Structures are given as C-alpha cells and as structure tokens.
Amino acid sequence: MVKIAKSQPAEHGLLFSTWSLPKPADVLVPHMGLTTKGTIGADTALTLDECVTHIQAMRDAAVSVAPDILVLCHGGSVAEPRDAQYVLSRTEGVVGFFGASSIERLPTETGIRRQTEDFKSISFR
To answer: For 1-125, where are the alpha helices, taking DSSP H only?
Structure first.
C-alpha cells in the first residue's frame, strides 16, 4: 500500500486514488474534461458512453471508502441537460450534475447569438 500511495493512480490502471485524501470527501465530482459545446468548447473529449464508464468506476471506488459520498457528473461531453440525463440514466448512485460552463457560458452564448440575430434582422427605410 505504501508504494501505491506514493505513486500515481494511472501507474496502477486506476482512474484516481481512493486513498489520497486523509479524510474522505463529502462530494465527488468526476471531471470529464473541458466542455465540448459552444463557441469555445474543447475539440476533443470522451464520448458520453465513455463518461458513463469513468463516472461509474469513480463512484464505485469512492463509495468503497466513503459509503455516504455524493457523486455528481460534470464536464466534457456532459454539457447539455440531455447529456446529463443520458449519464444519470445509465449510472447507479450518481445523484446529479455539477454545472459550470453549461450553466453560465452556454446559455449566455445562446442568448447573445439570438439577440444579435434579432438586431441583424431590423429593417431600414
């Protein structure tokens, strides 16, 4: 265990270290990468199915050491409400979605785009 604790989780085929925290966390938010949607979204990301696999594995590992931990999905391809629904309907014990760009940047981009298009459609005499 000492060797593993002093090494990187990936060196042992693990997604993350369940023993790296002195006290288990109350909430775990598996980060699936940069948000892929919108005008400045990342060009590459895990697929939603890959996100499901990784999030479930992280959740399962986390509850093995902290049974009461709350797990939320976040990031990468999980960018829209339908994406979060996809992940939540295919995982066990994942209790919600943690929004960042999906809550502030993406809706802002949509609103700005719509408002700009409305202004562009103004007719002149």
So the answer is: 2-5, 48-65, 81-90, 105-120
Burial bucket for residue 31 (CB in 10 Å: 0-12, 13-18, 19+):
middle
**C-alpha torsion sign, points 16, 84, 27, 41:** positive
For residues 32 and 105, what is the distance between their CA atoms, to the nearest angstrom? 17
CA–CA distance, 123 with 108 (Å, rounded to integer): 25
Residue in this structure with the two tokens 């979204």, named with its chain if needed? 41
Domain 26-120 has CATH 2.10.109.10: no
Segment 26-77, tens digit of pLDDT: 888 888 887 776 666 667 788 999 999 999 998 998 888 889 889 999 988 8
How many whole angstroms separate alpha carbon 66 and alpha carbon 8?
21
Answer positive or negative: Cα dihedral of 105, 47, 16, 11.
Answer: negative
Model pTM?
A: 0.70
